[in-house]
């Protein structure tokens, strides 16, 4: 190993051939220019060289204004798009709401029509039942008159005695007292309450309601009534009114709050049917 190997070299680094060529070209151009200038100054006959000034075009660009205008246009377009979107949403919401309201109105109208139809049907049915009951009463009245005794048109029946007399006497003793719905004595009665109380005098327990009382005992014809028989109005088993036949073509019953307990001829309000418990 050389003793000088560790000493750094003081030589300048070699320039590359390309860099030397560039520099040589630049130097040559400068020298040529200087030579031409000297020659021109040495010849007095040469015309002076006129200097020409080239004016560069001036660009009048207002960049700040253009940018501001573009931003304004973009913002306006964005606002218009938002407004249009909002209007579209409102129109869609209005259409949806109108459709829902129309559907609800149609359903309510249908319900109302159904209710009116049901009410009309119920009224017609009630009218048919009432007409049937009137026809039945008229038929029973005709039958009763054809078999009545000459005296006062009453049905033929034996005088009340025994239990029947107790029932009749009690019923007649209540004439003039008040009619009170649900009343069972001793100062007021309703129709079935009076019948139940009268039969209690004979030691007979009857159901409380007129519907059940019209099904008690055995059915009897209106032209074969006997004192103490239970008269009913309406269908058997679903009667709406009851009273007690007291003989002589008459009955005693708690009629209504206006008349109270009264005695009436059968012709006053012909019953639908009768049952015999005794």
What would your notes on this structure say?
With 278 residues, the chain is α+β, with helices and mostly antiparallel strands. Among the domains are: 80-146; 151-276, endopeptidase fold (from Nostoc punctiforme) (Alpha-Beta Complex). Helices cover 49% and strands 13% of the residues. It has five helices and eight strands, in the order αααββααββββββ. The protein has helices at residues 17-42, 63-146, 162-173, 191-200, 210-213, and strands at 178-179, 188-189, 218-220, 230-233, 241-247, 250-256, 260-265, 273-276. A six-stranded antiparallel β-sheet has the order 3-8-4-5-6-7. A two-stranded parallel sheet has the order 1-2. Strand 5 and strand 6 form a beta hairpin. The radius of gyration is 64 Å and the shape is rod-shaped.
* CATH uppermost class of the domain at 151-276: Alpha Beta
Task: Let me know the CATH homologous superfamily of the domain at 151-276.
Answer: endopeptidase domain like (from Nostoc punctiforme)
What ranges have pLDDT less than 50 throughout 5 or more consecutive residues? 41-46, 141-156
Mean pLDDT, to the nearest integer, reads: 77
Major sheet characteristics: 6 strands, antiparallel
- Described by the principal axes of the CA atoms, the overall outline is rod-shaped
Total strands: 8
* Gap from first CA to last CA: 159 Å
Rg estimate, integer Å: 64 Å
Coarse structural class: alpha+beta
Lateral arrangement of strands in the main beta sheet: 3-8-4-5-6-7
Q: What is the count of helical runs? A: 5
Estimate the helix proportion, in percent: 40-55%
């Amino acid at each position: 190993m050389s003793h000088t190997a560790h000493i750094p070299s003081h030589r300048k680094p070699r320039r590359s051939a390309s860099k030397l060529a560039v520099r040589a070209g630049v130097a040559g151009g400068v020298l040529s220019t200087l030579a031409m200038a000297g020659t021109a100054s040495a010849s007095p006959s040469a015309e002076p060289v006129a200097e020409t000034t080239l004016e560069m075009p001036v660009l009048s660009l207002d960049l700040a204004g253009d940018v501001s205008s573009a931003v304004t246009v973009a913002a306006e377009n964005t606002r218009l798009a938002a407004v249009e979107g909002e209007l579209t949403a409102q129109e869609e919401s209005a259409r949806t709401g109108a459709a829902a309201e129309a559907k609800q109105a149609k359903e309510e109208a249908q319900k109302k029509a159904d209710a009116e139809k049901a009410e009309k049907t119920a009224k017609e049915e009630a009218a048919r039942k009432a007409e049937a009951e009137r026809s039945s009463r008229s038929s029973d009245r005709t039958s009763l008159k054809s078999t009545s005794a000459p005296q006062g048109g009453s049905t033929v029946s034996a005088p009340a005695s025994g239990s029947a007399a107790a029932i009749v006497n009690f019923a007649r003793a209540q004439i003039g007292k008040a009619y009170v719905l649900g009343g069972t004595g001793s100062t007021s009665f309703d129709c079935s309450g009076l019948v139940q109380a009268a039969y209690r005098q004979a030691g007979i327990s009857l159901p409380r309601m007129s519907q059940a009382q019209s099904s008690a005992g055995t059915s009897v014809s209106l032209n074969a009534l006997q004192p103490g028989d239970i008269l009913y109005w309406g269908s058997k088993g679903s009667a709406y009114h009851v009273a007690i036949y007291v003989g002589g073509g008459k009955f005693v019953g708690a009629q209504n709050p206006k008349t109270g307990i009264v005695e009436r001829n059968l012709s006053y309000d012909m019953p639908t049917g009768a049952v015999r418990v005794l």
